[in-house]
Amino acid sequence: MTYKALTVAGSDSGGGAGIQADLKTFQELDVYGMSAITALTAQNTLGVQGVYPTPVEGVVEQLNSIAVDLAPNALKTGMLFSAEIIEAVADHVKKHEWTKLIVDPVMIAKGGASLLQEEAVVAVREKLLPLAYIVTPNIPEAEALTGLTIQSNEDREEAAMKLYELGAENVVIKGGHTGDAEFAVDLLYDGNEFYRFKGPRIETKHTHGTGCTFAAAITAEVAKGNSVQEAIQTAKDFITSAIQHELGIGSGHGPTNHWAYRKAGVQI
After folding, report:
1. Which parts of the chain are beta strand (E)?
2. Per-residue pLDDT tens digits of the chain, which is 268 residues long
């Protein structure tokens, strides 16, 4: 059987994040990748030079085209840009009865540029989270979605429970923004238990696209029928290897190495 995964996200002209990162990750994990592009961005490792959103009807037509011929086993959302696009995507996820939705609530690019309009945060909270099989915010994104300040492990657990209460079936709050100098620990809450996925913290500036890649790896594994915990563990190993074996390209925040997991093996 050929498993299929769909990414609904923005295009990164630099190739390190967005649909480019997602499709590379799907391919590396033996899943056929498809895309619905929500915006074009002009960006490189130095930052985002421009954002050009797709008309809402263009996003809708892409989703409908996929639905009638290439229904995904799982899908993820990345940069959705506006409340209008978020609402349209949410409506069509429900319309097409796509249940394995991984929501990566992309808000800020590595260089600091905003990739989500302010009013769109409310749409993510009210429209997308209730449909999410898994939501994968980093700490700043979790703060924006919950209104909480996250400074401790207890704060992170409280935020995870609140995101669960907002409708997500499973919540993963990533650990990249914690103060732990030795490890990056991702926290999973499934409504009953907390689970932690620990990897070494790697000192590098080449981390562009880590969030997209992590969520895409989860999506690929879910598409193959793996459990939430199995999917997150594979995604953790995948992104850790991708950061460890850096490509070293670009003058700013360079991309991760999407083929490292396959070529170099999991070395953590």
Report:
1. 4-12, 32-44, 47-53, 74-77, 101-103, 134-135, 171-173, 183-189, 194-200
2. 999 999 999 999 999 999 999 999 999 999 999 999 999 999 999 999 999 999 999 999 999 999 999 999 999 999 998 999 999 999 999 999 999 999 999 876 555 556 566 778 889 999 999 999 999 999 999 998 999 999 999 999 999 999 999 999 999 999 866 666 678 899 999 999 999 999 888 888 888 999 999 999 999 999 999 999 999 999 999 999 999 999 999 999 999 999 999 987 654 4
Q: Could you please report the per-residue DSSP string of 36-83?
A: EEEEEEEEETTEEEEEEEPPHHHHHHHHHHHHHH---SEEEE---BSH
Partners of 189 in beta bridges: 171, 194
CATH code (residue 203): 3.40.1190.20
Radius of gyration of the chain (CA): 17
* 173 assigned to some structural domain: yes
Task: Name the residues annotated as catalytic.
Answer: 174, 207, 209-212
**Do the domain assignments include residue 147?**
yes
Domain that holds residue 219: 4-263
